Amino acid sequence: MKKTYHGSCHCGAVRYEAELDLAEGTGRCNCSYCAKLRLWGKHAKPEEFRLLAGEDALTVYRFNTHSLEHPFCSHCGVHVFTRGDIPEMGGKFVSVNLASLDDVAPQELIEAPLRWYDGRANNWMNPPAETRHL
């Protein structure tokens, strides 16, 4: 069942709310970007994500195919979400960085199913052979 969560960067300049169902599953990727940030995300449709404050505080990073927008707070550096539009993934989406949620109970995260993506090998539909280091 979807629940409205609230999240923010470390300094609070960027704040959002998102309707998420963590029981549907979450994801981690081993691509060069996600691995360095240790990102753990949950996708939402754009209409399920609302940026409440801080658009002017965001700096955007893009790399490789530039199909994803990785905004982060220009004050504290925390990455709170990613925006993308990838037809193979259902079109437009926002991936919320679960570490930036302010009102999620640890037990909800513990119980959330986790799927791994082998982004390093562009083998997105399969998990990498090893994930313990991620």
Helix-strand layout with pairing:
Layout: E1 3-8, E2 15-20, E3 26-29, H1 32-37, E4 41-44, E5 49-53, E6 58-61, E7 68-73, E8 81-86, E9 91-97, H2 106-111, E10 114-117
Parallel strand pairs: 3-10
Antiparallel strand pairs: 1-2, 2-5, 4-9, 6-7, 7-8, 8-9
Summarize the structure.
The protein is mainly beta and 134 residues long. It has one domain: Metal Binding Protein, Guanine Nucleotide Exchange Factor, Chain A.
Record the strand order, biggest sheet. Answer: 4-9-8-7-6
Average of per-residue pLDDT values: 94
Helix proportion of residues, in percent?
under 10%
Q: How many domains?
A: 1
Number of alpha- plus pi-helical segments = 2
Report the order of strands and helices.
Answer: EEEHEEEEEEHE
Query: What's the gyration radius in Å?
Result: 14 Å
CATH class: Mainly Beta
CATH topology: Metal Binding Protein, Guanine Nucleotide Exchange Factor, Chain A
